[in-house]
User: What shape does this take?
Amino acid sequence: MHQSKRILFLNPPGQKIYIRDYYCSKVSKAYYLPQPVDLLMQTSFFNAPEYNLLVIDCIAEKLSVEKSLERIINFKPDYIIGLMGSVSLTEDVSFYKLVKKQLKHAVIACSGDALLDKYDKKLADNLWLDAIITNFYKDGFKQFIEKSTAIEGLVYRDRFNKTITHQSKRSKPLDVKPPKQNLFKGNYRMPFANAFPMATVLTNYACPYPCTFCIMSTLPYATRTSHSIIEELKTLKAQGYKFIYFSDQTFFQSKAITNDVLNWMIKSNYGLTWMCFSRVDVLKEKELLLMKKAGCSLIMFGVEWAEDNMLVHYKKNYTTQHVIDTFALSKKIGIKRLGTFLIGVPGQSKASILNTIAFAKKIDADYASFNVAVPRSNTSFREEALNKGLIDDALQVMDQSGNQVTMGTGVLSREELQHLKNNAYISFYLRPKYLWNRIKSLNNWMEFKIHVKEGFYMFKSFLN
Assistant: This one.
């Protein structure tokens, strides 16, 4: 009888609530933790009986290093698909070395923001690492296991110690099978989810926009077919999920496909509420009305700055007026709006940051997320930081959330940026009128408990 190949999908343990997925590793600013989408999408490519699959999410399950190792060793995987983040780089490398020491014959492939450049060096420096998944939206590692020649999105070391790189190409919409959400057993949550359990869904990959501070613009944009997405949504409802977090970088980017999905949700009376990321120049009134009717409760928009010249410099390709108009329209339609704001870019002054905080209030955002700029690998923003002497090229450990500030601006120190970020949250969230409006907007006891818990952890994170 043919024995199934044993594949482990691993989110390694950590001292903090690390979010390592989708090339954006960070410490959870509050208490949120979505399903790790890299691992989630990879599960869609492997099926029984040929493969015996197990997910161990050590962060979600709050496993210690010792307990994590015990679980992994007991499963005896032939292959491990794991996550590796810049925010937890030292801990991750140490843990994977322990795994390889115990399971010498297991092939380990990892995905993460810590692995998006200098492939030869990273494979040479990490002998426990056998392959780097450079595009988790592709089935390259499965093709590697099956010794196929049609490999995409994978870098690996062959038996002659040579690095082989297979780049991903732009492709037609992918008709992949639904990811295996039922394998993920952790307590997954988002601060704006109003029902549980919550599922993470990815309808497209990367982003076609050229924002220089973001790694997504350097990756090949791809989307799934409407059929693939709808089949996943059907499965999630049948499995009892109550809330959907669409983790696309730009929801509604593929308009025809998204229209098909949303119209199906409406016609089928899908009934689940959901949230997503998008852009202020992508969503017009027609799209917003359709989203609201299909159950959208909140949209996260990358606002970033209050100055048009900065939006031009970092190639956001929209204006502050776009932001004002879309936030006002979303409010009128009845969809809550979260604005993300980026502080600490090279040359930015205190006055500019205070202006950004004031803008978050002016546009009447329901929620605001203030992030400190991080010079992520393989971005032109990192090159800018290097050229201005703000960082050293050896810098690898970075926290995308900005809980630990990576660099100053040349005008402001790291300590000053940390202080400004903390004050941004206090200034935005502790306004008496804001607090009263938030309380009035809550629909049930569940939402109240979620808001209190998330608020507690958020303020605790930067007051320590």
Notes: The chain has a mean pLDDT of 92. The two ends are 57 Å apart (CA to CA).
